[in-house]
Amino acid sequence: MKWNIVTDSSCDLFSKDYQKGDIKFSSVPFNIQIGAESFRDDEQLNKKKLLNLINEGMLVRLHVQHLKIG
Prior knowledge:
Layout: E1 3-8, E2 19-20, E3 23-28, E4 30-34, E5 37-40, H1 47-55, E6 60-64
Parallel strand pairs: 1-3
Antiparallel strand pairs: 2-3, 4-5, 4-6
């Protein structure tokens, strides 16, 4: 039996798309909206800009993209 364990991008237990035997680990990135700015929680995330907006007191909203499994 094969397993696919899917986490959101806040999980630091596995490297992205790591696979071992019959177990595959995948990560789905958060989409972070701060004011009018949108950020995707992946390798390209501009952490400095994100933290500056948070420090300015902007409202933060998190979204996880929908997955189709099967």
